[in-house]
Amino acid sequence: MFVQQTHPLEIKQKLAIDEAIISSVGDGLIITDKQAKILLMNPAAASMLRQDPREVIGSDLIETVPAADINGNIVPRDKRPLLSVLSTGLSSTNHAANFYIRSDKTKFPAAITTSPIILNNEIIGAIITFRDITHEKEVDRMKTEFISLASHQLRTPLSAIRWFLEMLLSGDAGKVTEEQAKFLKNINDSTIRMIALVNDLLNISRIESGRIIVDPKPTLLSGLLDGILAEVKLKYQAKKQKVIVSYHPDLPKINLDPNLIRAVYLNLINNAIKYSPEEGEITIIISKKNDEIITQISDNGCGIPTTEQHRVFQKFYRGSNIVRRVLDGTGLGLYLVKAIIESSNGKIWFKSEENKGTTFWFTIPIAGIPPKRGEVTINS
Amino acid sequence: MNNDQPTVMVVEDEVLLLEAISKKLQLNNINVVGASSCKQAFDYLESLSKKPDAIWLDYYLGDLNGVDFMQQLRKNREWMSIPVLVVSNSASPEKVQKMLDLGVKKYMIKAEHRLDELVEEIKSFVKEINE
User: Fold this and answer.
1) pLDDT of A137-181, one tens digit each?
2) DSSP designation for A214
3) Which of A2, A7, A242, A376 is the most exposed place for a label (fewest CB within 10 A)?
């Protein structure tokens, strides 16, 4: 077989070009070996991390470049994506806010992708690319702040509309005809819906901005749920629905923020009531499994069309089968629910069949959730 | 003004809201003294022969905010005892706590409530005082 000979000078030239390419990449780039030791750090990475690109070679990446989570806590070694990429060979991109810590202990938010380097079917190392997203975060913060401000501003005219309507409807300005009363009631319903929308938007902006206070207190989920059920009793009784409740006999008290979990229960139960027929049945089960408490909320309502199920937790999603029938929904409830559960270190999922019903499950760790300082609470 | 009826002072800088609140209170046989700024509220307090039985207070006012209002109110022994209901658009826990520490009896969110619910609330304050 004929093998083309490459001149040594040509190889050198090629290597120099490769190195120049890597050096010139504007994003940070770090290459490690299979043991997570740094083989190369390009100038952009070195400059962002304030490291000496020559000195770091051979040192452990995880120790040399610590990462912190959104609350400023150092990410422990076994939670760093690099290790799983090196063992599984699957790439990882951070979706949650992650910070890299510079050599001078300052930090910056980074979008990071970690990919394995595979040679002859074997993982021989990893390549990490990242960039500083301080600016994007700032724009995001401004967007959230704008939503919050705008929502607050909307509350004043909404209150005026609501209150004057209330007086018209109660005849404070004279008797209204039957048809006038009907029209006024329609305006009133829309106003109440708009107020709900503004509240949901405010809650979402609070969660997204990370300004929300998490204030865990030892809470018995069954007690919390009993209170909520008493609150919504009129609603399900009006539809002659049956609510069946079953609690694990010895539920422990869990350290969680009752305000936040209350919002979760309220949203899920209100949905079950709203989207189930008259005389429908709603089942709520709280069980214990390993180190988690699982809540299950089932209804025999209209369900979610299969083709839309991947969109259930998206902002403003409302089922195409209900959007024209049930008017008082904002499409923000489940998005909020998911955000709360995930910030409480839990998981949420569901199963649904159109015209048969929907079941939601969510977990809360028995260990509870850590407190978080912030400025705002939900519904304030 | 009917002297047999209780009097509530409403401090609210949004003219339309002030109008709605005043109307509803009057329909509930309550005399209303409406003020659209802190300054106006204190001018009235100083000039009124009989102090109001309760105060309905918005948090953000044109000139000052609720904290300033409460601090000024507490400087006068006679005014200190007037029960205050805050009805505001925003209620961060810090703000609410601060107002409660300053002696506010209750803090409620405007758009969340029907007017008659809020009126019932302030009536209960007046009743407590007069019992």
Assistant:
1) 888 888 888 887 888 889 889 999 999 999 999 999 999 999 999
2) B
3) A2
Domain A15-132: state its class. alpha beta
- Which tokens belong to A79? 């939670």
Report yes or no: A114 and A90 within 8 Å, Cβ to Cβ.
no
> Which residues partner with A242 through β-bridges?
A281
Tell me the nearest-neighbour CA distance from A198 into chain B, angstroms. 10
A6 and B CB contact within 8 Å: no
**Alpha carbon separation from A118 to A77, A139, A317, A341, B35 (Å, rounded):** 23, 37, 40, 37, 75
Contact B69, B57 (CB under 8 A): yes
Q: Is B27 on the interface with A (CB under 8 A)?
A: yes
Q: For A130-147, what is each residue's pLDDT tens digit?
A: 999 999 988 888 888 888
Tokens encoding A203: 């809650």
**Distance, CA of A245 to CA of B56 (rounded, Å):** 42
Query: Given CB atoms, is B64 within the 8 Å cutoff of chain A?
Result: no
Name residue A103's amino acid. S
Q: CB-based contact (8 Å) between B17 and chain A?
A: yes
Rounded to whole angstroms, the Cα distance separating B70 from B75 reads 9
What are the boundaries of each domain within chain A?
Answer: 15-132, 134-211, 212-380
**Which sequence spans correspond to the domains of chain B?**
7-121
Distance from CA of A113 to the nearest CA of B (A): 38
Name which CATH class applies to A134-211.
mainly alpha
Instruction: Please return the burial class of A174, using the count of CB atoms within 10 Å of its CB with bins 0-12, 13-18 and 19+.
Output: exposed
CA distances from A198 to A34, A124, B61, B119 (A): 51, 52, 22, 24
What is the CATH architecture assignment of A212-380? 2-Layer Sandwich (3.30)
Q: How large is the ipTM?
A: 0.89
Note the pTM of the prediction, 2 decimals.
0.71
Q: Judge: A376–B92 Cβ closer than 8 Å, yes or no.
A: yes
What is the CATH architecture assignment of B7-121? 3-Layer(aba) Sandwich (3.40)
